[in-house]
Amino acid sequence: MTGCSAVADGCLSVAGHCMGRLGLSTDAIARLMPMHLHLSRNGHITAHGPTLTKIASGTPLIGNNFFDLFAVRRPAGVAAMADLIAHQGARLHLGLRAGGAEFRGLAMPDLSGGIMLNLSFGIGVVDAVRAHALTDADFAATDLTVELLYLVEAKRAVLGELQRLNLRLQGAKSHAEELALTDTLTGLRNRRALDVALMQAAAARAPFALMHLDLDRFKSVNDTLGHAAGDHVLRVVAKVLSDETRTGDLVARVGGDEFVILLPGMTDVASLTGVAERIIAGLAQPIIFESRACQIGASVGLTVSTLYPNPEAEVMLHDADIALYAAKGAGRGRVVTFSAHMPQV
Q1: Which of 110, 138, 257, 321 is catalytic?
Q2: pTM
Q3: For domain 191-337, is the CATH number 3.40.1160.10?
Q4: Predicted pLDDT at 152
C-alpha cells in the first residue's frame, strides 16, 4: 500500500502511514498506543510503538516473525496468525521468548489481513518500569498506568517515611530505656538496672557473686573541695571499677558513694577477694582535681550465691551490706566476705 489508498474502506495502512478516515500518521498511532505491534498477514512485524523498542533491549522487531519473538501463554495453542484472528477481542497473555517482560494484549484484524496488537503490562507494570527504566512518557497519556505509577511512588514515599519515623521512634525508645538504666554522672548502671539483673541472675539459679563497695573519706572531698571535685572523683571511681571488672560484669552506682558489682559465674572467694583488693588499691591512689589531690579509699562487702540454698536478690544485697559494715568496722580499706555468724545490721 502507498499513501492512503484504503481510506475509503476505513482500513489501517501502517506502511502508508495513515489510519483510515482519521488520517492518523504512524507517529500519532505511536503516541496513542506506544506499546502496539502491527503484524502482516504472514505474521511479520511491520510496525511497533516506541516503548517496545526499550523493552526489546536492542533486538530488532521490524521484519521478524511475531511468533519467533513472542510466546502467547494464554489462551493455549495460539501459535499462528489464524489462531490470533480466531481470538480477536480476547485477552491474551504473552511474553518475550528471550524473557524480561510479560504482557496483556488485545488483537484485532485489519482489512488487509494483518493484525493490530496492543499491549500493556497488567499487574507487572511496577517491575517492568524498574527493569526497563520506563517513564510516564513511555505510556499513553490517557493510560491509567501513569496514575498507577504515581500512586505506587506516593505509597513508596509514604512507606519509606513511615519506616524512617519508626526507626527514629525505636531509636528514641532504646535511648530512653538506656537512660532509664544508666547513672547519668558516671555512666554506670543504676539501681533499677541492678535490680533487674540481680532478679534475673537469682531466677536463673546460675552462680554469681555480689560486691557492695562504699567510698571512705568521700564526704571530706565534698566538704573541702566542693561538689565539682566530688563529681570528678566519682567518675574516676567508675573508671577504676570498670577497668578491674569483666565485660559481662555489671557495675552499678546505687547511692551517692555506694556501688554494687554483680559478677556472673564467679563464686571462688579467693579470686573475688583478689578483684576487690585490686579495686581498693586503685582507689587508694590520689585523684587530682584542679591541681589538688583528693584522697579517698574503699571498703568492700562480698557474698556469693553458693552460700544460699535458694538465692534471693534482696537477701544477698542485705548480706553484702552486712559484710561491708564489717569491713568498715575492721578498719576500712579492706574486703570482708559475708558469714552467717556476722551480727545483723
Answers
A1: 257
A2: 0.56
A3: no
A4: 67
